Amino acid sequence: MPQNEYIERWISRHGRRLDHFERQRKKAAREVHKRAEFAQRVHGLRAKLFAKKRHQEKIEMKKSIKMHQEKNRKHTDDAPVAEGAVPAYLMDREQQSRAKILSNTIKQKRKEKAGKWDVPIPKVKPLSEDEMFKVIRTGKRQRRGWKRLINKVTFVGE
Predict the structure, then answer these.
(1) pLDDT for the residue 36
(2) Strands 133-138 and 144-150
(3) Which terminus of the chain has a lower count of CB atoms within 10 Å, N or C?
(4) Phi-psi category of 84—alpha, beta or left, where left has phi over 0 and alpha has psi -120 to 50?
(5) CA-to-CA distance for 131 and 151, rounded, in angstroms?
(6) From its phi and psi, is residue 119 left (phi > 0), alpha (psi between -120 and 50) or beta?
(7) Under a CB-based contact definition with an 8 Å cutoff, are residues 129 and 156 in contact?
């Protein structure tokens, strides 16, 4: 066992405190206030680096929020309007396409592109032990032959 896993071993044997997750939640809630206080107190180059890092985080958050909002929003197509009269049942309907549908088609195309280069898996055929393993001779005179080395990648089903 590696030397640094003693904490995980202790937790698996004895478990955690009953209020562990509650304490973690409260600690995370307090962390926001500590960061704000640090941002106000820090000076100089450290302040610039901290502000830059925080700015990047905000940009990422705004992008993710915008993407989630974009998913369910309707877009109006800027297609040219056909000449002539439009029937009454089509008057109030604008040419709308859901952004969700667009994003789904884009995802589908990406999957198809990725699938093009997948290597087809050949049918599984049974292998004999001679094919699967290579006998390794051991000992001073190379007489012992009980060790085996795997030659081919194999799948052992249940």
Answers:
(1) 95
(2) antiparallel
(3) C
(4) left
(5) 7
(6) beta
(7) no
CA-based nearest residue to 97, from 80, 114, 76: 76
Residue 63, pLDDT score: 85
Q: What 3-state class would DSSP assign to 149?
A: strand
Alpha-carbon dihedral sign for residues 41, 47, 49, 50 = positive
The pLDDT tens digits of the residues spanning 52-67 come to 999 999 998 888 888 7
Q: 37-70: b or e for each residue (b if 16 or more CB lie within 10 Å)?
A: eeeeeeeeeeeeeeeeeeeeeeeeeeeeeeeeee
Tokens representing 140 are 């001073």
Structural contact between residues 14 and 3, judged by C-beta atoms closer than 8 angstroms: no
pTM of model > 0.70: no
Q: How confident is the model at residue 157 (pLDDT cuts 50, 70, 90)?
A: low
Q: What is the pLDDT of residues 74-116, one digit of tens each?
A: 655 555 566 777 776 766 555 555 666 667 777 777 777 766 6
